[in-house]
Structures are given as C-alpha cells and as structure tokens.
Specification:
Layout: H1 2-17, E1 20-23, E2 35-38, H2 44-52, E3 61-66, H3 67-70, H4 74-84, E4 87-89, H5 98-107, E5 111-114, H6 132-139, E6 145-151, H7 153-156, E7 169-173, H8 183-212, E8 216-221, H9 228-239, E9 244-248, E10 252-256, E11 259-261, H10 267-280, H11 285-310, E12 314-318, H12 321-332, H13 339-349, H14 361-365, H15 369-372, E13 382-387, H16 390-400, H17 410-429, E14 434-439, H18 444-456
Parallel strand pairs: 1-7, 2-5, 2-6, 3-4, 3-5, 8-12, 8-13, 9-12, 13-14
Antiparallel strand pairs: 6-7, 9-10, 10-11
Helix pairs in contact: 1-2, 5-6, 6-8, 9-18, 10-11, 11-12, 12-13, 12-17, 13-17, 16-17
Amino acid sequence: MRLLVHCLLLRPLLRLLFGVNVEGREHLTGLDSFLLVANHNSHLDVLLLFSMLPVRSLSTTHVAAARDYFGRNPMLFRIVDYLFRPIWIDRQDRTGDPLGEMADHLRDGHNVILFPEGTRGEPGSIGTFRQGVGRLATVLPEVPIVPVVLCGPEKSLPRTSSIPLPIYNTILIGPPQAIRGDSLDITESLERLIRELSESEMVHRHRRVSRVRDAEVIAVLGIDGSGKSTLSRQLARELSADARICLVTDEIELYEHGEKKEVQPLLTELARGVIARQAKTAKSLGRYKIPKMAEILMRDQLIGQVRRWYSPTRIVLDGSPLLNLVAWSRLYDDRELDLATCGAMIRVLTGYEGGLDRRHPVYERFPQLRILKRFALVMPDLVLMLDVAPDVSMQRIRNRGGHQQVHETDDKLARLRAGYILVCDAVRSEFRVSTRILDGHAEPAAVTAAALAAAREPRRGEPAND
C-alpha cells in the first residue's frame, strides 16, 4: 500500500504541480546501498528525493528527520512516519544515537537520506555542513555517498511560506563518491562537492537560457470579445511560413510552414487546462481570482518549458501573464491605476525591482506582490493590443452564445480595457518594449497585416502606436 501511494499518488501529483526534471539518474544504477546527501531548503525536498528513487529502493530508503519538529503535530508525524520510515532525531535529546541507527540501516543494505545542513537553510543558499555525515562515512567507508542538488523547492515551498507554488524543479544527481579521511575532512569535501554541483547547475541553466532566449516573445492583448485569440492564432500561422512558431493560448500549438504540427503535451499544460476550466465557471470575481491567478502563473512557466522542449523561433502569447496580472488589478481595486504604480508593479513581477524600497506604497496597495515577485515573470519583446470598445466586445460575446464569464460585463470590460492601455503605456515608456495598439474595429485582414508588420519590424528606438 505504501508503494502504491508513492507510485500512483505522490509521484504523479508532484510532476503535475511542480514538474520534476532528474539529471544523472544513471548514477543510482547498480547501487545496493548508499548514503544520499543533499542540500535542504524546503519540506518538498524529501518528496522530490523519493520521487527520483528507483521503485525497488522505496521500501529500503529512510530519511533522517527531526522528531522535535514533526512531533508537534501528531497527524503530520504519523503521515511522515508511514510514508518515509524516517530515522527520527530529537535535537533536544543528546542521549540517543541516530548515527548508530543510520549505520545499522546501511549495514543491512538499506539507503539513508541525510541533509548535512541539519535544517532548512535560506532559499537558494547552502549552509555549513555538520560533522555527523563525516562521522557516519568514517564508520562505513565502503558505502558509496551520492551527492544530490535540488533546485526549485526553495521557490516552490520556502521555509517562510506554507503555500506551495507551481514552480519547475530540477534534481541533479552526482556520481557516487568514496571519500577517505577523518570526519572533518569528509564533511568539508562533501560540502565543497555539493556547492560545486549547485554552481554547475546554475551555470548550466544560464547557458541553456542564453541559448533559447533567441525565441522572441510576442504578446497579443485585448479584452474578451476583442478577437485577440483569433489574431494570435493567425499571427502564429503567418509567421511560421519561414520559422518555427509556438502559440500559447488555451492550448499549446506549434506551427511550421503555415501548418499546425503535433506536439508532445506538457504536464504543466494539462494542469493549467483543468484550472482554467474552473476559473471560467466561477460565479463571482472572488472565486474567479485564485484559479485565474494560478492559471496565469502556470502559463508563464510554460514559456520557459516550450523554449526548452520545442525550440521555437518565436513564441506568440494569447495574452501575457505579466501584463494580464497588472491590468486585471483594475477589477479588484476601485482606485485608479496610474503610470507610476503600473511601472512599479511590473518591476516587482519581473524580478527587477529597480531599487524599490520594501516599504514602497505598491506593496501596501497590493501585498500579494511580495509572493508573486518570486516568479520573475517574462517580459514580452513585442506587445500588440487589439483595442475594441467594450459594448462591441459584449455584443460579440452575446452573439457567440454559450457560457458568459463573471467578468464579461460592460463595466468590467471597460475597466480592463483601461488597464491594458495603461500597461501598454508603461512597457513602452518605462521599459522600452515595442508596443502597438491596433484598431480592433477594422477589417480582420487589415488587423492581421498590421500585426505582421509590427512583428517583422526590427526592434529599435521607441515604438509608436498604430
């Protein structure tokens, strides 16, 4: 039953919500018993480490865990004890011998997961290793030590937060080590090795990003009923005549030579689709807000994933996660949104706060920015807004029939339109992003031609509106 819970529930759920990319899995092949040491920033760490283990190792792997921490909640203690069969360490009781228990498990051919930092550290940093891992290695020098670096859990579920966020995670497994020396030498060698692995993964990610950033991002904005979805799809198809174009709309679509191609679906995309359907059926703005925000954040994660897996020349977005979040704040705050506040929100959401003080008024007005800034949302290279009067959009929405969403009213669409126009002003004037506001009342062929001209125009200087 325990194996079924891991294989049929926990592993699929982790991959669906957070994404798990494992590099170096081959280093676990052929190991009868091992001591796994890893950095520790989050309670997700244990779940992720168990998700990468071979199934045959699940029943023989134990993690060192703090009894004094998990014991505060009896239900949580029972769940952790059942799922991971921990080696419990009471940090306030010096009479126990957890190292002896770990050594006994290793002698019996089992595996032990140990976090040498002793506790969750600061997000993205590696703390000083304690000497327990070195002492254990000197007792059992024949047991291979497997170094592992976790990248992502410090953002998905940092120690300062109790709400997990859907951020992609990477597990980097290093080659098994046989380190000799006294306990201090072994501890310092392992800490140095983990730090080097962490730095190599950071360098790898930077190289990977620099290689795929050539995929220009074009965002098509507009209120519901403006025709932005139709325009974004037509734009992607037309641009694909001589390029590989990925369209991120309600689904991911890939175009080459003017034709739609089959693509391997991504788990993040499947999860986003489920959440998006929940948002569309919401009966009030309050119930609409949370699933819509989650869907927007997952859409931003997809930009990086399609860059990596589909290698497009350009990415066309039906909307922009970054700019949608800013514009949609007009629905939830009755106060007017000015250019300075709009610019400050964009700086926070992109991760480039530009020297904003922690006491900046934007944080007081929108306190959720303190959490959302961890996502570092993608700024488009080109923004196209299809501008349509709200009454015209509402008439189009009524004509298409079907379910009408909670925000699809004249008043709410008018506020959204004002928010989008202000966002376009901000990215053009403060961030020098090429921006075009297109007349959505014109003939579709003329609108598409104007969008294509803007997409094919070199990015230079301050753009003007059409």
